[in-house]
Design brief:
Largest sheet: 10 strands, mixed
Keywords: Cell wall, Cell wall biogenesis/degradation, Hydrolase, Secreted
Strand content: 5-15%
Subcellular location: Secreted, Cell wall
Family: Belongs to the pectinacetylesterase family.
EC number: 3.1.1.-
Pfam families: PAE
């Protein structure tokens, strides 16, 4: 096992937080669905709405989008939550693509149809806008007054599936993530996202020249951001500034602790079932379909400025990419998955190697002048959608900058941002996840 990766271990991490109970006894596909959707939401290890002395988060209503053959897995309409901007942010837009894993077969998709990740019938009609979606200047200093949209995820393939007909397998399935993307974008364009396309002949229109647009996403929504970043740019040809941010979405195509490439096999199933190859014309014919789904491949063809936000020790990837179901029959990784401070020397060597694999995968993008990155040394997953990790007294810092500050500096060209944290256990500001019990039982 020690030969999987090779690098030196560290010894100390700061522990903070607790997580909820596991979904024991279910298939891994179901565990992927439930665990990643929970990682992508507000961290249950802390108060759902930490305010740090400020007002409570704003609740934003759900809007459903009808027509255009765009439907969730179960045939219900997709949706989004929209909060209008104000002041000098009223002409700028920030869109966030929700995350929540994927479904790889009919059984896992059938389970997903019964949740908010497969049906708008199960979505909350109002959600809190926190982190990068907050309208509180003290918690979100650069984007607080923008038009902000949270796009709900209900197709199971990162808004990229495109099967024309309903799929019958005892019950009906709709694999139409691409059409959901197109329908939601069309609806938002009609509500003001397209204003910068107007010819400018008035003072009001000239003010629109300052319009900016920012596509973001977390986890599986982060992967969606890589997939659709250039699509977003193409929708706004006259918008002066269009950029993208992928949070916790740089999933790695690496061997797990047993020597398998488990995640590639998982993505192969998703890609074949939902016919996602149409989205990846850059992929060579000798590549497996799942390979084309990894961000390292998708990002190669992106021309729009992109910000890569990822922890070097992503807690979700440690469990589901590095030590997934079947790779650890003796359950030797159980404690390490729950709490990085419980990892032994050999496990720490492997985790350091996993960090090295991430740095190797993003290395080619460091030379892109208009790209940014923030790779901290924390044991967490998704940091832009949690108030405590986005911008708070407890947020992780690199060179004394929070994630929010680094992203703002990059977006507004205040400085070049290529922040790569030192190895575990160097960063005492890290906010690390600690699980009470594993998310799955081996």
């Amino acid at each position: 096992m020690a030969g999987l990766f090779s690098t030196s271990p560290g010894l100390l991490w700061r522990r903070l937080g607790h997580r909820g109970a596991a979904f024991a006894g279910v298939l891994l596909a179901a565990a992927l669905l439930f665990t990643l959707s929970r990682y992508a939401a507000v961290d249950p290890s802390v108060s759902p709405s930490p305010t740090y002395g400020h007002r409570l988060p704003t609740l934003v209503d759900l809007t459903l989008v009808y027509g255009r053959d765009a439907v969730c897995l179960d045939g219900t309409p997709p949706g989004y939550h929209f909060q209008p901007g104000f002041g000098d942010g009223s002409h700028s837009w920030l869109l966030h693509l929700e995350g929540g894993s994927w479904c790889r077969n009919f059984k896992s998709c059938a389970q997903r149809k019964k949740t908010n990740l497969g049906s708008s019938a199960h979505m909350d009609t109002r959600v809190e806008f926190v982190g990068i979606l907050s309208d509180d200047e003290s918690q979100n200093p650069d984007f607080y007054n923008w038009n902000k949209v949270k796009i709900r995820y209900c197709d199971g393939a990162s808004f990229s599936g495109n099967v024309q007909d309903e799929v019958k397998n005892g019950t009906g399935f709709f694999f139409r993530g691409q059409r959901i993307w197109e329908a939601v974008m069309a609806d938002l364009l009609s509500k003001g996202l397209s204003r910068a396309k107007q010819a400018c002949h008035t003072d009001y229109c000239l003010a629109l020249l300052s319009m900016q647009a920012f596509l973001t996403g977390c986890s599986a929504g982060g992967l969606s951001t890589y997939i659709h970043c250039d699509d977003f740019r193409a929708l706004l040809p006259k918008t002066p500034t269009v950029k993208c941010l992928a949070d916790g979405g740089f999933f790695l195509d690496v061997e797990d602790i047993s020597g398998r490439r488990y995640m590639r096999g998982f993505y192969n199933d998703v890609a074949r079932m939902q016919d996602v190859h149409k989205k990846f014309p850059h992929c060579s014919s000798d590549m497996e379909p799942g390979q084309c789904f990894f961000p390292r491949e998708v990002a190669k063809s992106i021309s729009t400025p992109m910000f890569i936000l990822n922890p070097a020790y992503d807690v979700w990837q440690v469990e589901h990419v590095l030590s997934p179901h079947g790779s650890d029959p003796q359950n030797l990784w159980r404690n390490c998955r729950m709490d990085i401070t419980k990892c032994d020397t050999e496990q720490l060597k492997i985790l350091q190697g996993f960090r090295g694999a991430l740095l190797d995968a993003i290395d080619e993008f460091k030379n892109r002048r208009d790209w940014g990155m923030f790779i901290d040394s924390c044991f967490i997953h998704c940091q832009s959608m949690k108030a405590i990790t986005w911008h708070s007294p407890s947020a992780a810092r690199i060179n004394n900058k929070t994630v929010a500050e680094a992203v703002g500096d990059w977006f507004f060209d205040r400085r070049e941002v290529k922040e790569i944290d030192c190895e575990y256990p160097c960063n005492p500001t890290c906010y690390n996840t600690v699980l009470d019990v594993p998310y799955k039982e081996d």
